[in-house]
Design goal:
The chain is elongated. The N and C termini lie far apart (77 Å). The longest helix has 40 residues. It has 2 domains: 99 residues, no CATH class; 172 residues, Exo-inulinase, domain 1 (Jelly Rolls, Sandwich), CATH 2.60.120.560. By secondary structure, it is α+β, with helices and mostly antiparallel strands.
């Protein structure tokens, strides 16, 4: 009787865990608890049987058998929890981005009274610089970044993706997690990255050398910021774009800065101060009470000054 109860309970826990991962929204935390308790029940039952029930076996064989059993069960538990982690990433990372390829038209961004029309001194035909022969640094590992945030490399599921999140920041205007490159770059470079806002994002900021391109989470507008004395107003993004995931690029040569979105010229800016060599980075301004989360991928820097 007890044998049936034990193994039935184990089976129920596994089934509940699998079910919780299939519903919408999925509860991955409870699923992990179910799999952990199932592994614990299996380990205790088998260990009890091997140590106490077969009285004719030598003690050393019982210990070795129990040790081997615990190793197998621990490995199975580790594999199942890793699988749950991957499923959670697929649900939280891949799912919001699957719609990108399905949308043939772009939704109109909400109008914001603070956004003013862009005025530039260049034509729409302005192209990104020729990068042939220029040294490229591709950011594809956590080891290449300095982070003030919770940075998760999810490249194993969605190639080239990083997830950056910041927790609540009570008493401050906003939560402000960031990542910057460990490498230092000259003041003549071209840097690009693909960005997507997820939760409670106010702006996504791409940092050049002493300059920031601030993007609204729905990609409806942008501003360029050097300091309180040197910045643009918020302007609408008029080039073709996706409402979720787009590429923003900074082409900087000293004080002169050109901005591109999806390889389309957007705006130019002349800094007041001459910049110094340093890192390139990504900043997130999020709700101070809740924190926020965003994704970035394909983060690359081409350094003309290193030639």
């Amino acid at each position: 009787m007890w044998e049936a109860i034990i193994w039935t309970t184990l089976g129920v826990l596994v089934c509940v865990g699998l079910t919780l991962m299939s519903i919408n929204p999925a509860d991955f935390t409870i699923a992990r608890i179910c799999f952990s308790f199932a592994a614990l029940i299996a380990a205790v039952r088998i260990s009890w049987w091997m140590l106490l029930e077969p009285q004719t076996r030598p003690k050393i064989r019982k210990i070795l058998g129990m040790s081997l059993t615990l190793i197998v069960i621990s490995s199975a538990l580790w594999a199942s929890l890793s699988w749950v982690d991957k499923r959670e990433i697929i649900m939280t990372v891949t799912a919001p981005l699957k719609e990108i390829g399905r949308r043939d038209s772009f939704t109109e961004a909400p109008k914001k009274p603070s956004v003013q029309a862009a005025t530039t001194n260049k034509t729409e035909a302005t192209l990104p610089p020729d990068l042939s022969g220029v040294k490229q640094t591709l950011i594809n590992s956590n080891n290449q970044l300095l982070s003030s945030s919770q940075l998760k490399d999810v490249s194993g599921i969605v190639p080239g993706f990083f997830e950056m999140s910041g927790g609540p920041a009570p008493g401050t205007p906003y939560s402000n997690p960031s990542v910057t490159t460990k490498d230092t770059f000259s003041t003549h470079f071209y840097a690009s990255v693909r960005l997507a806002a997820l939760e409670n994002v106010q702006t996504m900021d791409f940092m050049g050398r002493d300059i920031y391109v601030c993007i609204l989470p729905d990609w409806s507008g942008y501003m360029i910021w050097e300091s309180e004395q040197s910045q643009t107003v918020w302007k609408p993004i008029l080039v073709e774009k996706n409402p979720i995931l787009n590429t923003v690029a900074i082409s900087q040569k000293g004080r002169n800065v050109d901005i591109f979105i999806n390889n389309n010229y957007v705006d130019s800016f002349t800094k007041l101060r001459s910049p110094q060599p340093g890192p390139i980075g990504i900043y997130l301004k999020a709700n101070a009470t809740k924190g926020g989360k965003m994704f970035f991928r394909d983060f690359s820097v081409w350094d003309f000054g290193s030639q």
